[in-house]
């Protein structure tokens, strides 16, 4: 079994080298299956198929690939390109085109891909004629139907660059207006952050509905399977400055699952303004996203800055019928990253909007230590309180928003920066060691307050003593700054909470942080 880190490393490495987003030109199409008739297909059939699959014993997918495919090295696999003149829906002149990924290297489990038109599904067959192969790839004269590793979709607004892709396990990604890939989403997470290997459910089959000439969205269906669970998924994906995915999932556990992760998001955080533990780099910050945002069922807005911890840690944020959550890249200033290669300032944020009541549960944040920016070490997902047990169906509907800014935001001021350093007053010797926390806020009613306004910092700590509390406007920030010192003994983590308020109530969202003194 591959570890979580290996799976994520392979997918991210391919993205960095452009395999997930090659530049292709336009041409014709020749991808239709050769069956004269298709097979009737709809969402209810897929749901029934997932239920039937879960009632049967799990069958591990066999990686029976020919030697010329299993023997592909990095350079060989990267040299394989899908031919742009073979794109699905190209000949029909439709507003979207689908292009397929070849098997090999890290992607050894074939997925079946079908086209659905007029309610009938026909398989898309592999042919070596669909791909251009590099000079170092020796393709036999006769090749069978290998299947594919995944697919990507392009839109007529920019045929050169894809707008979303599905590749590897149940991973998928999308871009917003910046056309920049960043964090990933997954169909499902199983036992993430436990003291045993994580299970990676896989999308085994896809059904791509042929769009209409007037379509602004693409509909994709997928069948998910793993040792513990099977599921039926439907995606309605509308690209744009904010790409919106409406997702419907029906899940059927084969066995009890300790930690089920619904709508999981996967990102990378190596270091930033609040965490310089491993920052031996010319760039000031390296991260795809810098915080977890929560909009709770009680209408509280929470901002939790991300951390690259010394050891794996899991935080749970209990809630009932959450309004939404997301991993966001709030900092959009190039100067804060100085990266002209992968442009972290342009990475998309992703917001999860539940549709219908999700009941009781928790948003869980998993942070894993990493010294390498090619490893995704952050995962956030919804963990329902209702147990995932055999014979039970769990259904979820939600939307994912991919773009610079989430579609919803608090009317209160937002956290724009978190900084941590040595406590006390410069030039004065500390009698008791402390750490200083500095939090900057901007927006909401804060913008309307004068410099003499009475603003209180409401701060609490799970242990230790909070001292030297201050809140004041900073003209250069066009916002307000709160700072305080924390005096604490021992090496156990400390949970911190802070917001600004006046006599009318809260002025800001709630800042949460977990600080580990040993770090």
Furnish the topology, listing elements before pairings.
Layout: H1 4-16, E1 39-40, H2 43-55, H3 67-70, H4 74-78, E2 81-82, E3 96-101, E4 112-117, E5 120-123, E6 131-132, E7 150-155, E8 158-167, E9 171-174, E10 184-186, E11 188-190, E12 202-209, E13 218-225, E14 229-238, E15 243-253, E16 260-267, E17 269-271, E18 286-287, E19 291-295, E20 301-305, E21 313-320, E22 324-328, E23 349-355, E24 360-367, E25 378-384, E26 394-403, E27 414-422, E28 435-442, E29 456-461, E30 465-474, E31 479-487, E32 494-502, E33 505-506, E34 510-515
Parallel strand pairs: 4-12, 20-34
Antiparallel strand pairs: 1-5, 2-6, 3-7, 4-5, 7-8, 8-9, 9-10, 10-16, 11-16, 12-13, 13-14, 14-15, 15-26, 16-25, 17-18, 19-20, 19-22, 21-24, 22-23, 23-26, 24-25, 27-28, 28-31, 29-32, 30-31, 32-33, 32-34
């Amino acid at each position: 079994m591959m570890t979580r880190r290996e799976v994520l490393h392979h997918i991210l490495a391919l993205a960095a080298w452009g395999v997930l987003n090659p530049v292709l030109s336009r041409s014709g199409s020749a991808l239709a299956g050769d069956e004269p008739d298709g097979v009737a297909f709809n969402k209810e059939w897929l749901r029934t198929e997932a239920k039937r699959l879960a009632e049967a014993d799990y069958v591990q997918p066999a990686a029976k690939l020919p030697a010329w495919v299993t023997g592909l090295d990095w350079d060989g696999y990267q040299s394989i390109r899908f031919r742009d003149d073979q794109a699905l829906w190209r000949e029909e002149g439709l507003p979207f085109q689908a292009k397929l990924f070849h098997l090999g290297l890290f992607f050894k489990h074939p997925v079946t891909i079908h086209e659905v038109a007029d309610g009938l599904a026909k398989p898309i067959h592999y042919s070596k004629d669909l791909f251009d192969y590099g000079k170092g790839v020796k393709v036999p004269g006769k090749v069978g139907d290998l299947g594919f590793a995944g697919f990507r979709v392009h839109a007529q607004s920019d045929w050169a660059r894809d707008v979303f892709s599905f590749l590897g396990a149940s991973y998928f990604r999308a871009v917003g207006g910046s056309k920049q890939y960043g964090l990933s989403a997954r169909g499902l997470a199983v036992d993430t952050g436990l003291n045993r290997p994580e299970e990676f459910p896989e999308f085994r089959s896809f059904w791509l509905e042929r769009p209409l000439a007037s379509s602004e969205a693409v509909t994709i269906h997928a069948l998910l399977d793993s040792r513990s669970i099977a599921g039926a998924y439907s995606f309605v994906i509308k690209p744009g400055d904010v790409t919106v995915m409406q997702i419907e999932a029906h899940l059927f556990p084969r066995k009890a699952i300790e930690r089920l992760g619904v709508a999981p998001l996967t990102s990378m955080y190596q270091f930033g303004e609040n965490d310089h533990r491993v920052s031996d780099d010319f760039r000031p910050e390296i991260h795809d996203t810098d915080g977890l945002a929560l909009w709770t069922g009680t209408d509280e807005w929470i901002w939790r800055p991300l951390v690259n911890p010394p050891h794996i840690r899991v935080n749970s944020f209990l809630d009932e019928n959450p309004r939404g959550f997301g991993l966001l890249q709030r900092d959009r200033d190039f100067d804060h990253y100085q990266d002209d290669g992968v442009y972290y300032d342009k990475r998309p944020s992703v917001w999860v909007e539940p549709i219908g009541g999700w009941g009781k549960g928790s948003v869980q944040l998993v942070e894993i230590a990493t010294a390498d920016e090619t490893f995704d070490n952050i995962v956030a997902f919804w963990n329902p309180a209702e147990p995932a047990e055999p014979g039970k169906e769990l259904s979820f509907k939600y939307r994912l928003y991919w773009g610079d800014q989430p579609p919803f935001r608090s009317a209160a001021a937002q956290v724009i920066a978190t900084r941590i350093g040595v406590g006390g007053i410069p030039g004065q010797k500390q009698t008791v060691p402390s750490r200083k926390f500095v939090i900057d806020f901007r927006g909401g009613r804060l913008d309307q307050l004068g410099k003499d306004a009475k603003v209180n910092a409401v701060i609490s700590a799970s242990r230790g003593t909070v001292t030297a509390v201050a809140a004041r406007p900073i003209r250069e920030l066009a916002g307000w700054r709160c700072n305080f010192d924390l005096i604490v003994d021992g090496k156990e983590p400390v949970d911190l909470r802070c917001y600004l308020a006046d006599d009318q109530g809260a002025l800001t969202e709630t800042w949460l942080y977990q600080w580990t003194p040993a770090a």
